[in-house]
């Protein structure tokens, strides 16, 4: 990626991330890894994470709805915006958690969910995150000894999903548990990663 394009992308991401300035003692990262219900649940179990928001990123339609995104025609991915305390954790640790809660070898979707909106991807907000994501991807490829299909692209506008999607694993616990079990995420992550499955998390739901 050319430096000039990267610089523009960083500016766009910084402006579009939130309506107000982030507090000095927090930082933000954006991850896509299949159904945002599961990714949000997993990151809620990561030390230092203060808040998670399910949403959409990477598409061409402004203010997309779930119904629009689920048609797989808008280019958006389901993603989670993670706000964390940099005094407790950092982007590199969140990357470690992210890799080990997903299947980086599957670029068509995750677990039982397939289509553009479920493809795994990292959306760095600045050059430091971009460089860290690229370096981490290389190391994960070595660890798995397989090609890594997860994409990396500078963040564009992140649109929060509808209220009923937020904290779904808590507000609709029975539905969520049935979905996660039926999708087979835990078993597939554990089969891929072995003892390092869900590394960096204090449990998972």
From TrEMBL:
What is this enzyme's EC? Answer: 1.8.4.11
Uppermost EC category: oxidoreductase
The record's family statement is: Belongs to the MsrA Met sulfoxide reductase family.
InterPro entries listed in its UniProt record:
Met_Sox_Rdtase_MsrA_dom, Met_Sox_Rdtase_MsrA_sf
Per UniProt, what is the name of the gene that codes for the protein in this document?
Answer: msrA
What is any Pfam family matched here? Answer: PMSR
Q: Which residues form the signal peptide?
A: 1-23
Q: Where is the active site?
A: 35
The record's SUPFAM superfamilies line, in alphabetical order, gives: Peptide methionine sulfoxide reductase (SSF55068)
Peptide methionine sulphoxide reductase MsrA domain segment(s): 29-177
Q: Any idea what this protein is called?
A: Peptide methionine sulfoxide reductase MsrA
Q: Which HAMAP family match?
A: MsrA
Provide the GO MF annotations for this entry.
peptide-methionine (S)-S-oxide reductase activity
Q: What does this protein do?
A: Has an important function as a repair enzyme for proteins that have been inactivated by oxidation. Catalyzes the reversible oxidation-reduction of methionine sulfoxide in proteins to methionine.
Which transformation does this protein catalyse, written as a reaction? L-methionyl-[protein] + [thioredoxin]-disulfide + H2O = L-methionyl-(S)-S-oxide-[protein] + [thioredoxin]-dithiol; [thioredoxin]-disulfide + L-methionine + H2O = L-methionine (S)-S-oxide + [thioredoxin]-dithiol
Q: What keywords were assigned to this record?
A: Oxidoreductase, Signal
């Amino acid at each position: 990626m050319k430096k000039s394009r990267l610089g523009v992308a960083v500016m766009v991401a910084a402006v579009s991330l939130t309506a107000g300035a982030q507090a000095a003692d927090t930082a933000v990262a954006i991850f896509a890894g299949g159904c945002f219900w599961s990714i949000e649940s997993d990151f809620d179990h990561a030390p230092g994470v203060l808040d998670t928001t399910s949403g959409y990123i990477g598409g061409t339609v402004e203010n997309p709805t779930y119904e629009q995104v689920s048609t797989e025609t808008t280019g958006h991915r389901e993603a989670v915006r993670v706000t964390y305390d940099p005094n407790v954790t950092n982007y590199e640790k969140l990357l470690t958690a992210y890799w080990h809660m997903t299947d980086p070898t599957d670029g068509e979707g995750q677990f039982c969910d397939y289509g553009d909106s479920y493809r795994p991807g990292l959306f760095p907000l600045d050059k430091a995150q971009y460089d860290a994501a690229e370096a981490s991807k290389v190391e994960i490829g070595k660890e798995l000894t397989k090609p890594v299909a997860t994409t990396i692209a500078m963040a564009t506008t992140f649109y929060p999903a509808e209220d009923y999607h937020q904290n779904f694993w808590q507000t609709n616990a029975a539905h969520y548990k049935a979905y996660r079990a039926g999708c087979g995420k835990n078993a597939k992550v554990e089969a891929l990663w072995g003892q390092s499955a869900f590394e960096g998390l204090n449990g998972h739901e």
